[in-house]
């Protein structure tokens, strides 16, 4: 079954029925004359945004020097990011952290100086600019791009649509089972959606780019985004007559 989500292109929805049963056993009357059915709704869509986690880290004999160089690099990165997105909405920075830096030398750890580090999360809404952005970032002295996370800007709306598909799936299954059992389906008595099976975070490319505080310059890198699958499962109970 194919269904189109108006505001999202290239969207394919697949529905899978799950098991159901009719409860006709003796016992508590509240548990009699009911049919419990599970439903599942899936929506597959191409991502339209990507989040980059950028690290700037320097180790120096003096803490003040480590902090100063880290801040200078972050300032450069911020100017780049502001030309690709909204400063207030798309950029999140951590505070600079500074700690003693130890390295394993010979058979023991030795103090070599102080390390200062800061992390920036940036959401790019135009995937066509991904290569251009990474080219500019690689030209700075960042230490790494630690994570590349693809997602969709309308993830919440997609999940709500998946909820409706899951319910329609459950209702369809309950109707078929009632017909086969020669009983009449009654009103909805119970509906539960615990969020199981949901995918609201997209996926990570698995890439990590370490630059070791060296500006490489040149061209940026390319990553082909994969389809994201959003899934919801629900449980329903209908009365039967």
UniProtKB/TrEMBL annotation:
Gene3D superfamilies: Protein of unknown function (DUF541), domain 1, Protein of unknown function (DUF541), domain 2. It holds the Pfam family SIMPL. Residues 1-22 form the signal peptide. InterPro entries: 26kDa_periplasmic_antigen, SIMPL/DUF541. GO terms for biological process: DNA damage response. Keywords: Signal. This is Uncharacterized protein YggE.
